[in-house]
From TrEMBL:
<dbReference type="InterPro" id="IPR045851">
    <property type="entry name" value="AMP-bd_C_sf"/>
</dbReference>
<dbReference type="Pfam" id="PF00501">
    <property type="entry name" value="AMP-binding"/>
</dbReference>
<dbReference type="Pfam" id="PF16177">
    <property type="entry name" value="ACAS_N"/>
</dbReference>
<keyword id="KW-0067">ATP-binding</keyword>
<dbReference type="GO" id="GO:0016208">
    <property type="term" value="F:AMP binding"/>
</dbReference>
<feature type="binding site">
    <location>
        <position position="522"/>
    </location>
    <ligand>
        <name>CoA</name>
    </ligand>
</feature>
<feature type="binding site">
    <location>
        <position position="499"/>
    </location>
    <ligand>
        <name>ATP</name>
    </ligand>
</feature>
<dbReference type="InterPro" id="IPR025110">
    <property type="entry name" value="AMP-bd_C"/>
</dbReference>
<feature type="modified residue" description="N6-acetyllysine">
    <location>
        <position position="608"/>
    </location>
</feature>
<feature type="binding site">
    <location>
        <position position="310"/>
    </location>
    <ligand>
        <name>CoA</name>
    </ligand>
</feature>
<keyword id="KW-0007">Acetylation</keyword>
<dbReference type="GO" id="GO:0019427">
    <property type="term" value="P:acetyl-CoA biosynthetic process from acetate"/>
</dbReference>
<dbReference type="InterPro" id="IPR020845">
    <property type="entry name" value="AMP-binding_CS"/>
</dbReference>
<keyword id="KW-0547">Nucleotide-binding</keyword>
<dbReference type="GO" id="GO:0005829">
    <property type="term" value="C:cytosol"/>
</dbReference>
<feature type="binding site">
    <location>
        <position position="583"/>
    </location>
    <ligand>
        <name>CoA</name>
    </ligand>
</feature>
<feature type="binding site">
    <location>
        <position position="538"/>
    </location>
    <ligand>
        <name>Mg(2+)</name>
    </ligand>
</feature>
Length: 646
């Protein structure tokens, strides 16, 4: 064993949790040895209109490439998240909504009320032409109507594509067009940390570049004065008056699409990750239950935005499939003060908080007193997701926030995987700070070398998954070839995650970060190619190269090298302008943290930019630039080093 500290399973968790250490080994073993019966048994978690008789049917081989789960089953996802709970817990709170401004009152919706709201929303979508299989874009703040809109799509079989409210009009337009979406659901305005977000105005701007868009449904959230386009824009509250209260759920095949969610990759524009109905919901529900040992009565809080996969799977689908009480938070962790998260915990007696390392690092920096002045007595479990958690942040979460009594559930997964893949179970898994620990049932991780050789024992390599699991994405919307190419071509027969990983002597997995050109900024994925394309759109820019750099709060920051067109002068004003340009083109999360003007970029003789060198300079590690002799012009490196931006 290495010197890493180990936190054994607390006695009461071992006794009380659904799964203990022996239970985990048994379940995991069975899931790999007899996947057919294991998954058909698990499928009983859901309410099926027609129960499936086949579990997984898949091949990752190019000549027979296909992925299906429970393909002969029929169900409706919204009915599984709402209707089936009405008899047993109709009066239990399904959603607690905590507003941006703590002076305002929270709102609560029981399962019965959620049913009524979702039916009404579904009928408004239908009345405006949305049908099974249509793509509905949801560009919303974190208000209850966002949840209603998502579940309403699932109810009528429309495919939702939620676009994060922080994305720019251009990014929104691209996502509307890519999936030929004819309808957008939005709000007049959003609010975050006391500041308005002009959502409707952004949709108007996006509409100019998105000819497929025909209908915009606008929820009144802040009451701001917004322009309405006759014949295209509809106020939700007006439309809702004239629709029936009930909307029967549409029977869906298990493999019918549920949603598209755009995510950044190493090349080109964002990919529309497609998830289907049965397997996805099963995965979201099962992992929510296993990783967090969810029990009726527990107040569950996933502090993500529904614009990301974490919000899809762990604010909505997983918890609601399990009949949970799920908290939805409109605000930000640091406003009005860095105590906010812990105040919300106390206000609603939250049992589990699930958040990102970047938020923890930001709060940690503000000092322990912001935590100490709150009780947090209700907390039993703490979760993290989105990026590797550094052991200091892990320990702070464990000691300061959880006062040593709450296991930390570090869940590794991706938009593509639908739900947690490698993560502890509180009653089963001893913890090591910084490790996502062990695989979920049915997940077969392997570490491979660049040549694809499977590495055994304690080692480090590229992380692949050797078999399909129910929550796996099924395609890239509109580009099945890209799906295969991106994930299954590097290591034939295996799903390549894009992450590097170490496995220790105990079989624990330690994700080391992306090995492709994706950077992880505050737990959000950014493709370096996307930021580069935005920069070169600027009339004064000839070329740009973007790399990640270490950042103490965001995990990684964005470092951009920019070459201007001949005759253009660099200046601090232009630097500011370019940073704002990217912000406007993509959104605030893509704003470069550092921008260096570079007369030339280090290229090989064949014209390939040597990012390894750019990364080293961005990191400030200029003493080990390695071999630069293969560069077309080695002198550019001296200039880059001399003018590094810190
Ligand atoms: C859920 C989500 C996926 C990428 C993934 C990896 C990183 C996520 C992590 C983690 C280490 C964890 N990542 N969780 N790295 N430990 N617990 O974040 O999805 O936005 O698609 O990002 O995030 O690099 O490949 P997504």
């Amino acid at each position: 064993m290495s010197e890493v500290e180990v936190y054994p399973v607390p006695g009461e968790w071992a006794k009380r949790a659904r799964v203990d250490a022996a239970g985990y080994e048994k379940m995991y073993g069975l899931s790999l040895a007899d996947p057919g019966s294991f998954w058909l048994e698990q499928a009983k978690r859901l309410d099926w209109i027609k129960r499936p008789e086949i579990a997984g049917d898949w091949s990752f081989q190019e000549d027979d490439f296909h992925i299906q789960w429970f393909a002969d089953g029929k169900l409706n996802v919204a009915a599984n998240c709402i209707d089936r709970h009405l008899k047993t817990r109709g009066d239990q709170t399904a959603i607690i909504w905590e507003p941006d401004d703590p002076a305002e009152d929270p709102r609560r919706f029981t399962y019965k009320q959620l049913h009524a709201e979702v039916c009404r929303f579904a009928n408004v979508l239908k009345a405006n032409g949305a049908r099974k299989g249509d793509r509905v874009t949801i560009y919303m703040p974190m208000i209850p109507e966002a949840a209603f809109a998502v579940l309403a799509c699932a109810r009528i079989g429309a495919i939702h594509s939620v676009v994060f409210g922080g994305f720019s009009p251009d990014a929104l337009a691209g996502r509307i067009e890519d999936c030929d979406s004819t309808m957008v659901v939005t709000a007049d305005e959003g609010r975050r940390g006391g500041k308005p977000v002009a959502l409707k105005a952004n949709v108007d701007e996006a509409a100019k570049r998105a000819p497929s868009l025909r209908t915009v449904i606008v929820v009144k959230a802040t009451g701001a004065d917004v322009a309405m386009t006759e014949g295209r824009d509809i106020w939700y509250h007006e439309a809702a008056k004239s629709v029936p209260a009930d909307c029967p759920p549409e029977p869906m095949g298990a493999e019918d699409p549920l949603f598209i969610l755009y995510t950044s990759g190493s090349t080109g524009k964002p990919k529309g990750v497609l998830h289907t109905s049965g397997g996805y919901l099963l995965w979201a529900g099962l992992t929510h239950e296993l990783c967090f040992d969810y029990r009726p009565g527990d107040i569950w809080w996933c502090a993500a935005d529904i614009g990301w996969v974490t919000g899809h799977s762990y604010i909505l689908y997983g918890p609601l499939a399990n009949g949970a009480t799920t908290l939805m938070f409109e605000g930000v962790p640091t406003w009005p003060t860095p105590s906010r998260i812990w105040e919300v915990v106390d206000r609603h007696q939250v049992h589990t908080v699930f958040t990102a390392p970047t938020a923890l690092r930001a709060l940690m920096k503000e000092g322990d007193e912001w935590v100490a002045k709150t009780s947090r007595g209700s907390l039993k479990l703490l979760g993290t997701v989105g990026e590797p958690i550094n052991p200091e942040a892990w320990r702070w979460y464990h000691e300061v926030v959880g006062e040593g009594r709450c296991p930390i559930i570090d869940t590794w997964w991706q938009t593509e995987t639908g739900g947690a893949m490698i993560a502890p179970m509180p009653g089963a898994t001893a913890l090591k700070p910084g490790s996502a620990t062990r695989p979920m049932p049915g997940v077969e991780p392997q570490l491979v070398d660049p040549g694809g050789r499977v590495l055994d024992g304690a080692t480090e390599g590229n992380l692949v998954i050797a078999r399909s699991w129910p929550g796996q994405m099924r395609t890239v919307w509109g580009d099945h070839a890209r799906f295969f190419q991106t994930y299954f071509s590097a290591y034939p027969g295996k799903y390549f995650t894009g992450d590097g990983c170490r496995r220790d002597e105990d079989g624990y997995y330690w994700i080391t970060g992306r090995v492709d050109d994706v950077i992880n900024v505050s737990g959000h994925r950014m493709g370096t190619a996307e930021v580069e394309s935005a920069l070169v759109l600027h009339p004064q820019v000839a070329e740009a190269a973007v790399v990640g750099m270490p950042h103490d709060v965001k995990g990684q920051g964005i470092y951009a090298y920019v070459t201007l067109n001949a005759g253009e002068e660099s200046s601090d004003d232009l630097r500011t302008e370019l940073r704002n340009w990217v912000r406007k083109e993509i959104g605030p999360i893509a704003t470069p943290d550092a921008l260096q003007f570079a007369p030339g970029l280090p290229k090989t003789r064949s014209g390939k930019i040597m990012r390894r060198i750019l990364r080293k300079i961005a990191e400030g590690d200029v003493s080990s630039l390695g071999d630069t002799s293969t560069l077309a012009d080695p002198t550019v490196v001296d200039d880059l080093v001399a003018n590094r931006v810190s």
